[in-house]
Design goal:
Layout: H1 3-16, H2 19-26, H3 30-44, E1 49-51, E2 56-58, H4 60-84, E3 92-98, H5 100-117, E4 121-127, H6 134-137, E5 141-146, E6 154-161, E7 163-167, H7 169-175, E8 189-192, E9 199-205, E10 208-214, E11 216-220, H8 223-231, E12 236-240, H9 241-249, E13 254-255, E14 265-271, H10 279-291
Parallel strand pairs: 3-4, 3-5, 8-11, 8-12
Antiparallel strand pairs: 1-2, 5-14, 6-14, 7-12, 7-13, 9-10
Helix pairs in contact: 1-2, 1-3, 1-4, 2-3
Length: 304
């Protein structure tokens, strides 16, 4: 096994936490993966992995080497794709996963346009708000909202995910307008999640993040349901503007506590580090990056 193959094997072990899983993902035996990693350790003169009977994790040196491996393998992918793109078109199956609301509201059109551009490509798109492991589930491109911390995946930012506290004008007329985050405790709050037990909203005040406890009058694991409840006058909710933006523009919802808005997340396209990243994945990600911007359409009227 050459060094690039060994780096690929090592990266898979770190990403999947197992020699056996790495071997299955690469189509080689567990012993071949183990031998490749041991050879890397011999050449480098450093222990890269801590091994137990149940789990494998990188050492400090291993984590640093893993980060460089991802960069090197991604650079090789980029070069190979540039050459391949000169004489080939994507084909086969492209598996995409995305959050439910963002997928239905903002991915349907760009994905459809992408599919029309590449008729030899079959797109399998699933929408789910549950956490999926792209490596285990065989997903080529995963759209994820949040703070990117999982270094086992390569992330490319599509756009920011700004959030806003909003309520209907009728609700505020009936219950009063909050003047400070502390006032939220006296209001009906519509929260994202599976429980109406005490929740905390992270709000940014003067550059400082503050976690404000709120009592949930309603909860749902779907943001569109919460937005509809807010429009109907049920209370104040904290949602991404990619959901509430049109309602804000139409005056059905208004910003609450505009000087104390929720922390901003980001929307990423994730793909697994691979020596042979399929051109189909890169083309889709490029297509989505071109579609969205740092100030997407739903934000041009939704935030100050």
């Amino acid at each position: 096994m050459d060094k690039l193959d060994a780096m690929q094997a090592f990266s898979k072990v770190v990403a999947l936490g197992s020699f056996a899983e790495a071997g299955r993902a690469l189509g080689i035996t567990r012993s071949a993966v183990s031998k490749a990693v041991m050879e890397l350790e011999r050449v480098l003169g450093a222990r890269l992995l801590d091994r137990t009977t149940r789990h494998v994790s990188p050492t400090h040196a291993g984590r640093a080497y893993y980060e460089r491996c991802i960069e090197i393998l991604a650079a090789i992918d980029e070069t190979e794709l540039q050459v391949t793109a000169l004489h080939d078109l994507p084909r086969g199956v492209l598996k995409v996963n995305a959050p439910m609301s963002f997928g239905t509201l903002h991915l349907a059109e760009p994905i459809a346009g992408f599919a029309v551009s590449y008729p030899d490509l079959t797109v399998e798109m699933t929408l789910s708000d549950r956490f999926v492991n792209p490596l285990e589930d065989g997903i080529d491109v995963t759209i994820r909202i949040g703070v990117m911390e999982d270094s086992s995946m390569i992330a490319r930012k599509l756009c920011p995910c700004r959030r806003a506290l909003v309520a209907s004008p009728a609700y505020l007329a009936a219950h009063g307008v909050p003047r400070s985050p502390d006032d939220l405790t006296a209001h009906r709050c519509l929260v994202y999640g599976h429980s109406t037990s005490l929740q905390k909203w992270e709000l940014v005040t003067g550059g400082q993040v503050r976690r404000v406890p709120v009592d949930a009058a309603m909860c749902s694991n779907n943001g569109e349901i919460l937005a509809a409840a807010a429009v109907a006058g049920n209370g104040i909710t904290n949602l991404p503007t990619f959901i509430t933006g049109p309602d804000i523009a139409a005056g059905r919802l208004v910003l609450v506590l505009p000087d104390h808005q929720p922390t901003t997340l980001d929307i990423f396209a994730l793909y697994a580090p691979s020596r042979h990243l399929a051109m189909k994945s890169r083309l889709l990600i490029d297509h989505l990056v071109a579609r969205f911007t740092d100030r997407p359409a739903w934000d041009r009227f939704a935030t100050p």
